[in-house]
């Protein structure tokens, strides 16, 4: 039992990083991770040590995130009064900050399946096989989603993509 909890504890930083990248809100991400950990501990009897605890936890977190998105669409979005600016906001003049904000917006604009794949591979450094298992898709599907996500980000940044087929002269 304590080994199981130690493995879970070791995964918390990665779960928090992934949740923050998905939600783009620290409080929401922390709530998501807490819900994930509560569910994992409460249902530890369902874990079959056929694979790593990390993949199981990421799967739980991802399912909770998706469920929250579905519920949020039914409820609508709540905006706190403190979050509404009283005066017009001007973007920061720093180019690096602006580029980072543009990249974050481009990632947010990706379809959910591409965003999930991209963040698992790029942010968390999960292997293709493990990411495919977490997302519940074949590895080829994962690689396709990842390719489309990267192409969309290149396009959003105005960087020409590499052609898939090159003509040999």
From TrEMBL:
Domain RNA polymerase sigma factor 70 region 4 type: residue ranges: 104-153
Stretches assigned to coiled coil: none
Annotated ranges, domain PhyR sigma2: 8-61
UniProt-listed Pfam families: PhyR_sigma2, Sigma70_r4_2
Keywords for the protein's UniProt record, in alphabetical order: Sigma factor, Transcription, Transcription regulation
Entries under PANTHER family matching the protein: RNA POLYMERASE ECF-TYPE SIGMA FACTO, RNA POLYMERASE SIGMA FACTOR RFAY-RELATED
Family: Belongs to the sigma-70 factor family. ECF subfamily.
NCBIfam families (alphabetical): sigma70-ECF (TIGR02937)
Protein's UniProt name: RNA polymerase sigma factor
Native organism: Devosia nitrariae
Lineage of origin: Bacteria, Pseudomonadati, Pseudomonadota, Alphaproteobacteria, Hyphomicrobiales
């Amino acid at each position: 039992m304590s080994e199981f909890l130690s493995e879970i504890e070791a995964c918390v930083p990665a779960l928090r990083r992934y949740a923050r990248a998905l939600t783009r809100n620290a409080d929401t991400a922390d709530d998501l991770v807490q819900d994930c950990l509560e569910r994992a501990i409460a249902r530890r009897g369902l874990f079959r040590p056929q694979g790593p605890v990390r993949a199981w936890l990421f799967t739980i977190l991802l399912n909770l995130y998706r469920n929250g998105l579905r519920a949020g669409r039914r409820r609508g979005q709540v905006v706190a009064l403190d979050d509404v600016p009283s005066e017009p906001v001007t973007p920061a003049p720093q180019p690096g900050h602006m580029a980072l904000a543009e990249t974050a917006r481009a990632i947010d604009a990706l379809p959910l399946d591409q965003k999930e794949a991209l963040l698992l591979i790029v942010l968390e450094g999960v292997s293709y096989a493990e990411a495919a298992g977490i997302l519940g898709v074949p590895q080829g599907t994962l690689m396709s989603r990842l390719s489309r996500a990267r192409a969309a980000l290149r396009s959003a940044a105005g960087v020409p993509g590499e052609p898939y087929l090159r003509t040999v002269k």
